[in-house]
Specification:
Helix content: 25-40%
Number of strands: 11
Bound molecules: iron/sulfur cluster, FE2/S2 (inorganic) cluster
Order of helices and strands: EEHEEEEEHHHHHHHHHHEEEHHE
Distance between the termini: 74 Å
CATH superfamily of the largest domain: Alpha-helical ferredoxin
CATH class of the largest domain: Mainly Alpha
Structural class: alpha+beta
Number of domains: 3
Largest sheet: 5 strands, mixed
Shape: globular
Strand content: 15-25%
């Protein structure tokens, strides 16, 4: 089998790739030709390039079996696993780029650590302390949450989601991968933790406009929008706005509140009132609801809160008013999730 040159038109039986090479300072596509093999996938071609033309080409991979979720990239503009994408699917050159939604480290490798930080913010599985062990579940309940447990954390859905991809600000939405994780917890029949406050607040389930782009790229074929996000939106709306559900919860009782500030590991109160940034005002006005920011953390579980007051073309921050930290915690999730200086709705 002849090895094609790295420049010029593809030789017979070879495939041409335009691979992004660069780092945060800049970069461009570089053209390579590799000999075609039966069943070849894009990751094979990248390995060939590393072995024969560019040993310093950076790419992340582990299993080559579509199970570790490491080899995510954009192939001809679409988020794909390189190990699951056959080169004979394409006519002409194949363009391979790193995921756009995350900061570039080098070549095809991006820094996806933001996802792990978000993951740590989600309250974990919490069964009732009186639940009999071993746990028993109906087969249909197992079936329902099994879908969410298939996630391989490739972050292709995060990459395609326009909320994360097109806005240089990930503070609005946790993204579809974490809606899948929260759905797996919320729909678990033995879980007793409420997460709708977090969803309504920092997790930002309301930011999703159900375009379903995420579920189209999921290599595990998880129905992210249909089976995770839409039910979570419904639960959040019921918990946040349905007065009958609120009364029923009060009567029924026994649902543990979301974690309190004092229980959040690593929570360090910050001194000094934080001021808003102009971009916050623009974003908050666009969302069309009263906004507030947390200022100082006071003694005995009280917080200073500044409320945004809009008047024609002017706006100013009114405050501080004092609210109980637990009010924020139960409405918007753990205080560490809300974040000092983050946006919260007025507690009036
Ligand atoms: S359906 Fe929602 S989560 Fe999925 S890509 Fe669209 S906006 Fe993002
Ligand atoms: S939900 Fe699908 S696309 Fe998103 S991280 Fe999990 S496996 Fe990847
Ligand atoms: S190398 Fe593991 S998913 Fe592609």
């Amino acid at each position: 089998m002849a090895v094609a040159s790295a420049k010029g038109a593809p030789a017979n039986g070879s495939v041409a790739l335009q691979v992004f090479r660069g780092d945060p300072a800049g970069g461009a596509e570089e053209r390579f030709e590799v000999p075609m093999q039966e069943g070849m996938v894009v990751l094979d071609a990248i390995h060939y390039i590393q072995a024969h033309f560019a040993p310093d080409l950076a790419c992340r991979w582990n299993c080559k079996a579509a199970k570790c979720g490491s080899c995510s990239a954009e192939v001809n503009g679409r988020p794909r696993l390189m190990c699951k994408t056959r080169v004979d699917e394409f006519d002409g050159e194949i363009h391979v780029w790193p995921m756009k939604a995350f900061p570039l480290i080098k070549d095809l490798v991006t820094d996806v650590s933001w996802n792990y930080k978000v993951n740590r913010e989600i309250p974990p599985f919490r069964p009732s302390p009186n639940e009999a062990v071993p746990y028993r579940m109906a087969a249909e309940d197992v079936e329902r949450i099994y879908e969410f447990r298939k996630c391989i954390e490739c972050f292709l859905c995060q990459d395609v989601c326009h909320v994360l991809r097109n806005h240089d600000d990930k503070s609005l939405y946790y993204g579809p991968r974490y809606m899948v994780r929260i759905a797996g917890l919320e729909m678990h029949p033995l879980d007793t933790q409420r997460r709708t406050g977090l969803l309504h607040g920092k997790a930002g389930v309301g930011m999703c406009n159900i375009t379903k782009c995420c579920q189209e790229v999921c290599p595990e074929h998880i129905k992210i929008t249909d089976n995770a996000i839409i039910p979570l939106k419904e639960r959040t709306a019921t918990d946040s706005y349905d007065p009958i559900a609120w009364v029923a919860r009060k009567i029924r009782g026994g649902v543990p509140p979301e974690p309190e500030a004092a229980a959040i590991p690593g929570f360090v109160p910050k001194a000094g009132v934080q001021r808003f940034a102009v971009q916050d005002v623009v974003r908050l006005r666009a969302r069309g609801r009263p906004l507030a920011r947390v200022g100082r953390v006071l003694a005995d579980g009280w917080l200073e809160v500044w409320v945004l007051q809009m008047g024609g073309v002017t706006q100013r921050w009114r405050g501080p008013k004092t609210v109980r930290a637990t009010d924020i915690v139960s409405n918007y999730g753990p205080l560490d999730d809300v974040g000092i200086g983050s946006k919260i709705r007025d507690q009036d």
